[in-house]
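Hi support team,

I submitted a single chain yesterday and got back a structure, but I'm not sure I'm reading the token output correctly. Could someone confirm the output below corresponds to the sequence I sent? I've pasted both exactly as they appear in my results page.

Thanks,
R.
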Amino acid sequence: MVSVGRKGRDAMRRARVPIVAHFTGFGDRASFDDILPLARLISNEYAYGTYNQVHIIFTRFVSTLVQRADMVQLLPIRPSTDTRGIPGAQFIFEPEPAAVLQELLPRYLGTRLYQAALESCASFFSSQMVAMKNATENADELIDDLTLSYNKARQANITRELIEIASGARAR
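Hi R., thanks for writing in. Yes, this is the structure output for that exact sequence:
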């Protein structure tokens, strides 16, 4: 397991999952350069045969109100089933396909990891925004309820004082 961020690391420690490497997180504004060391680590370990599959677990941003935990297989790369518009075997690779793949693999992984980091960040900010909106609405509702209770108590005191004044005037 390679963890990114404190929460992921802590969760894996509690589950007693061995952590090979830990990245402290990419902050609010992750850049592609921040992701590259993670991509290089994964691509190198995969190329050396340490791993036969690589999956990433992240929070996928669906909409402002919906974020879902998602697990996606990064390696081995699954070929696309949509081959429309791609001519068959008409490509000439220079240098050899293995050299091209070796150069492109870290960039591909970096791009996929960067997408996951951005989606996780968007999900976090979206859920934070919704939580703050709900907290504001709850506070406004509480203020309205407390104001109504205060006004009722105030009105009751005024009414009681008026009754006492009227009772005192009658008694004379």
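A quick pointer for reading it: The radius of gyration is 30 Å. Let us know if anything else looks off.

Best,
Support desk
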